[in-house]
Amino acid sequence: MFAERTGYIIWVSDVKAARNLDKYGTVHYISKKMHYVVMYVNAERAEDTMKNVRKLSYVRKIERSYRNEIKTEYSKDVPDKTSFYGGIG
User: Fold this and answer.
1) Spatial CA neighbour of 8 closest among 29, 82, 23
2) What domain of life is recorded for the organism (predicted)?
């Protein structure tokens, strides 16, 4: 159905030139103030794509996003303490 995607945070020295990263994948966000780009690429071709991106003159550093590896399903094993702390008097 949907292709598996991998997120990358790419630190750049030139934000205007960073718009060209759209050729390599889906640019999700560009921070003009902090000079980074959040980008998603296909997981099968991620390593080859990042090798090509790393060669660009305006790319300073590339970090992989671990968002898809974070547990998002929670269980309520711990009792709720809101009734203990709630209440005025």
Assistant:
1) 29
2) Bacteria
Helices (H), 1-89: 15-18, 46-54, 82-85
**Angle, alpha carbons 7-12-13 (nearest 5°):** 175
Q: Is the pLDDT of residue 86 over 80?
A: no
Q: Does 5-68 carry CATH code 3.90.1150.10?
A: no
Comparing 14 with 1, which gets the higher pLDDT? 14
How far is the C-alpha of 82 from the C-alpha of 21, rounded, in Å?
A: 47
Matching residue, tokens 């309520």: 76
Q: What is the pTM of this model?
A: 0.76
